[in-house]
Every structure is written in structure tokens, then in C-alpha cells.
Task: structure prediction
Amino acid sequence: MSFKAFFVTILVILLAFSCKTKKNAKFVNSIQKVEDRSLSARLQELGDPCRDPMNYVPDPDHLDHFPIKYIKVNFHIIRDNEGKGNFSEVEGTKYMNQLLWSAQGSLKKNRKMNLPVGNDTPVLPLRYTYKLTPDPSIPGDDGIYFHNDDDHYYVNIKGKNRNNYDKKVFEKYGIQKGKVLNVIVQDIHLDSIGSKTFKASSNGIAFSTWVKGGYWYHTANYTEIVDGKKTYPLKWIPPKNLNHEIGHVFSLKHSWRRDGCDDTPMHENCWSATGKPPCEVASNNVMDYNPYRSAYTPCQIGNVLMTASRNPTKRNLLIKRWCKLRENKTIRISEDIEWNACKELEGHIIIEKGGKLTIRCKVALPAGARIEVQPGGELLLDGAEIYNDCGEKWEGIKVITEGDLSGKVNYYRASKILNSKNAVVMEEEMNQKS
Ligand SMILES: [Zn+2]
Result:
């Protein structure tokens, strides 16, 4: 570099520094109330936002505002005293992994609804999945268990020996009860094999924190010869069962009836399409009875996600991903965004210039996370509760000022900032006049 070039470079650097206005960052310790008529009108419109499942429906333009929820699962295969009547250890381990993979696949790839005919129901991502979860107190555990028990290896869904609602099998064999969703896999009583009334049709039943799967072994092993080759046409039905039952655990009802969702029409619940009324078109919704069960409507997704967030019993079945700060999960707000649902987040929230974030429900932040309001950005707390769910502290609300421009933080309805290193108080409105 010549002396002249060096001189010019130094000059440019000096000029750049002298023109730059000073940036100032500070954690807020008090927040003032705003009066805004449009906010009370908006609240009237919203009703009780935190309890409205439609507010939990993922927004495809901002999927990062909806971190994926992981439901912990384990599997129990129950066999008779001799180890018969259900999967062997080798095939059971293999099949449960396949089943889980297939069930997760359906959650990953939502399908368009068949009903009502001509519908334009959006096909949204589900934002939840399953995670096979071993018990850390059992050495070498993989989360798939085998139990031999003459009294509990079979399930009867009909008749006087009906036992499908019997909870004893879970009481006896459940592992990490209440913390992991237990899947109990039973099959047919060996005395009933060969009976003309038995059909290998996989089924299931949902309880509060666990499910039963029935006849999965028979269904997975059901064979048909096609072109001289052995095939297993029903093998992929049990994963659909699992998704259906876990749908029940997380509040979903059968969708051919009234289920509280406007986007799941009532219908005849035909197993498959026959081309003739009333089964011209069969449903493919996960909460109907059909072999496809791969479509979830926005209302159904919203219900599952709201239940996962708000119902403490169901929330215990999730991996607490929101306890660990992940820098790459930082949410940047650069538009006018309203959060009218509870959220469990894994990163910082940064409100950029021109962005406005309104928070109306509970938001959990991991230790070390901060909310940063940059110059020209705005945060409005309207009934918000920002907290840490892991017995730790998040940082607090940091406001950046640059020259005359500052980040803005206000509240409207009473809000709470809990568990933050930099404590914040809500200042009462100064001039209270009605
Ligand atoms: Zn059902």
C-alpha cells in the first residue's frame, strides 16, 4: 500500500467513526402504560385469545414463531408367559422403529383434506413430532420394552371379556409415567386365533397420558400374495392408529361427528370410497376411520398445539426444549406481529426497526435469552406473562437507542415480567382519568 492510499484509508475510517451516532443499550426496569382505543376494540374482537385454538395455528410465513414440539414416547410389547402372541424382541424393536418413522412421516407431511369435496382448507405444517425416549435410570435402555404376561397380552374390543378400557396393564408396566407417553401394544388372545369372527384390524384407545395399540402384530404380519410375491398390505395401518390415538391424547375428537372444528365436516365415516352415496368420497382425516388418516386441518393442529402448551398433564409429555438457549432460534420481528397464544421459545426475540410485537399470553424464554428492542422497534405487552419455565433466569428487556431513535416498550393490560435478571415493574398510568 502506498503512503497516499494508507492516508486515504485512515481518513475514511476516521470519517466513518465521526459520522456514526452513538448507540446505547440498556435493560428497562419500568414500563409505562399506553392508552389506545384501537387496542380495546382489538381485544373485543379477540375474546379470550390465549384459550382460542385458532390462535395456535402455525403461521406459514413465520414458522420460527412456532418451535417444533417433541412428544416423548416409549413402547411396551406384551406377550403371553411363553413370549408368544406378539412381536419377538428382534422384530418388535425393528417394527416399532419403522412404525415411529412412518407416524412421524405423516406428521411431517400433512395432506390436503378430501372433504368437503372442493375444499380449499389450507395444508399447514403440524409443528410437532415424537421422540423415542429411553429411561435414563435403566442402563442401555432404548425405550422399547417387552413383557411376558398371560393376563395382559391380549385385548378384546367386544363381548363380555372386553378389556380395552382396562388400565391395569399401564399401572403394572408403565415406565416414566406422566413424563413419557407410553404406548402399550397388545394383540389377540391365542385361543381366539382361527376363530371366524376375528379379523386382524389394528385399533387403539387413548387414555390421559398413554395409549393402547391393538392387533398391530397381526396387522403388520398380515400377508397377501401379489404376483406370486408375499406382501404386507396392512403394515402401515398401525402408524396411522398411533397418530389417531395421540391426537385423542392431545384433545382431538372424532371428526365425522361434531368435534368443535369448522374445517372438519360431519360425514358418514366411510372406511373407503365406493363411488356410490354415501361413500362417493372417503375422508382422509386423521381423526376418522379410514386407511389414509394423513390430513390434519388448521383447527385440529391449533387444538393439539394449544393443549400441548396449556394443559400441564400433556405438557409434561414434551421435551422441555425451551430450557436451553439456542442462538440459531433467535426470532427477529420486522413487521407488525401479534402473539395471541402461549409460546415456549428457544432463543432471543429481537424487534427490529419498523417491527412491532404485541404479546397477549404467556411466553417462556430460556435462561440467557433477552428481548431486544432496536431503534424504531416496538414491544407492547397486553396481558403478557414472560417467564422462565426451568427455575432459571432470562436476561430481561433490552432497549437500544441510536441518536434520537429509541426502541419503544409499553404495556396496555396488566402484564408480568417474571424470572428476569433485570427486573421490570409496570408503572401505573400517571394521569388516571376516565
Ligand atoms: Zn378414536
